[in-house]
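quick one before i forget lol
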Amino acid sequence: MAIAVWKKIDEESIVPALEQAGEKLDSAADQVVLDFSSVRRVDKGALQAMEGLSRVADEKGVRVVLCGVNVHVYKVLKLVKLTSRFSFLS
């Protein structure tokens, strides 16, 4: 399985980073890995961008893997029912 995109997500620019990752989905072989280790919280805009990214990834058959997600961000993703749309790495 080839990893085509590995992107570190900065808490200050989550939405633009997710949009950039979405643009690279065409070149992604199997999966895109997003490093959330520096993200401590997500807001409504970030959640909407994550939902959009997961929708486009599903359409293109690309798996989105989130790594380094802290427990608080994971709980928010769980509350808004987005955890099933992503894979997670510790």
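fyi The chain has one domain: 3-89.
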